[in-house]
Structures are given as C-alpha cells and as structure tokens.
Design goal:
It is built from 9 helices and 12 strands. The longest helix is centred in the N-terminal third of the chain and has 29 residues. The two termini are about 50 Å apart.
Length: about 300
C-alpha cells in the first residue's frame, strides 16, 4: 500500500530529477531516499525512474505515477481543513423539502438566507407534500422542510415562517372582479367552485370546509395543486379559495379578492426539522431559516 511519505518522496525526486537535491528538500540523506524509491518500484512491479550519471529521468509510468501522487497529496492536504469546515457547518449540504405552494412566497427568501448564513453550503431541493416531508425527515432523506402543520412526528421542531389569509380567485371578467370590498362566503353560495382534493390536498380542503359551505352540485373540478386551481379559474371554470401569496404568480385572467370570513393567519407554513439532527450546516443556518418571512416583501 502506498503511504503519503512514499508519495512525497517520489514527487520530490520526480520534480528535482536528482536524488541529492530531493534528499536535501526532504531534509534527509540520499541513501535512505534511494532505498525508499527502489522499494516502491519493487512493490509496484514497474520502473519509475531511469538512473543516469547526472541525475534521473522519468519513465512513462513514472510520469503518470507522479501526476497521481500530486493529486493524492493535494487531497491529503485539503482533507483536514475540509473536515474542520464541515464540522463547523461552514461547508456541507442541506437537503430541503418544500411544498409547491411554498415556492410562491417562502422558498426564495429561505434560499437567500441560507446563502447569507452559510455561503459554502449547497442546498438540495426536494418538492414534496407535507406527509412526504415528514417521512423524509424520519428516514433522513431531507434535513428540513417547508410544510403545513400539524406535525405528528417524534422529535419534530418547527417555527412558523408565513401566515396568510385565504382569498377568492375569480376570472377577471367575473361580476365580482371589480369589487373593491371583501367577498363574503354567502356570496359564493351559487358560484361554480373549484376545490381541493380531500385525499391529496387535505390541509387546504379542510380550511375551505371550515370557512365556506360548498355543496356538491357547486363543484366543477377538484385538484391537488394550487397552481392548477388558479389556472382553471383563469380558464373560466369557476372560482376558488387560495392562499394570498398566490398573487405572486401573476396568473393572467385572474383577480384575487379578500374573503371576509378568512382570519389573517388561516394558512400557515412552517419550517420543520428534527431537533436531533446531526447536520452541522443545518444548525448553523437555523437561526436565519426559522425567522418569519414578510409576505409583503417582493420575492427575490
């Protein structure tokens, strides 16, 4: 097995092309250096050097071996520093889970904060619904998530990043589109509604059910993704209740109107992680990652 001392000795000879000068560079005498190189050649079973009266020259194998030894020594020199940086959280990887809707408002600021807090850390993005994020945290597939409460997971810690109301998305030509006042739930009684799938978007389905009574005969379509609901509104298939941050999409043909019955904190998005996480980069970034995002600020 090649040792770092052997690699350093060979590189010195390969660069000096003279045993005497290489020995001086290594602060040793020439005979032990010569024996060390001979032993190395014997171990490898190849001739690395051609001995000549005025010095040495490299064989083709010697040139290739020199280059490999250079890389080996450079890696060996970097390894301690990299280990120190990773242990301190200045270098590493944070695997971030996020819901599709969080990209409208929170994902951009969170990535900017991470870059500010730990510029040497890479962020790996994983689009997941909340249940998938919780499973990812449990299994170790992700380090932190942007998800909807509640979080039924042992050792889960969380911090609210964004709270916002639900608003009414209507086609731009709708009779309510020019309104300058909030729309009440009662005014939606006879409107065709695009709603959330109870199975695939349970969080938003429950929110809508709590605020507005929607009859089965009102429902034109159900969907799991907010973007799909808004696109269907723009195409004239009905109205929908969506998070206020959806306005950042700038979807053509859609107007967003306040919903009278919606509390300001009806929709919540949290950062969620395991307090037992051993990822130093995550813990270094957490003080910034857990700060609330101002929904009034433009998206980076």
């Amino acid at each position: 097995m090649l040792t770092l001392d052997q690699a350093r000795a060979f590189v010195a000879v390969a660069e000096e092309l003279h045993f005497g000068r290489a020995a001086e560079r290594l602060h040793m005498t020439q005979p032990p250096l010569s024996r060390q190189i001979q032993k190395l050649e014997k171990t490898l079973g190849v001739t690395l050097l051609l001995r000549e009266p005025r010095g040495v020259s490299l064989t083709a194998a010697g040139e290739a071996f020199r280059d490999e030894c250079h890389q080996l020594l450079e890696m060996a020199d970097r390894a301690p520093r990299r280990a120190q940086l990773i242990a301190s959280g200045r270098v590493g990887l944070i695997r971030l889970g996020y819901t599709a809707a969080s990209s409208f408002s929170v994902l951009g600021p969170v990535l900017a904060r991470t870059k500010e807090a730990v510029p040497g850390v890479a962020v790996e993005l994983h689009e997941m619904v909340t249940s998938q994020q919780l499973e990812g945290l449990r299994s170790g597939a992700i380090d932190i998530g942007l998800a909807r409460p509640p979080f039924r997971l042992e050792d889960a810690a969380s911090a609210p990043l964004l709270t916002e109301p639900l608003v009414v998305a209507v086609p731009s030509g709708h009779r309510l589109a020019s309104r300058g006042t909030p729309v009440s739930a009662r005014e939606l009684t006879h409107e065709p509604m695009i709603t959330y799938s109870p199975d695939r978007a349970g969080y938003f389905s429950d929110l809508v059910t709590d605020l507005v009574e929607v009859r089965a005969d009102q429902v034109t379509h159900t969907a799991a993704q907010i973007l799909t609901l808004v696109a269907l509104v723009g195409a004239g298939h009905g109205v929908a209740l969506v998070p206020c941050s959806t306005r950042h999409l700038g979807m053509p043909g859609v107007r967003m109107l306040p919903l009278l019955e919606s509390p300001a904190d009806a929709v919540q998005l949290h950062a969620v992680w395991l307090s037992s996480s051993t990822n130093p980069a995550l813990h270094r970034a957490l003080p910034l990652l857990r700060e609330p995002v101002d929904p009034a600020r433009p998206i980076p």
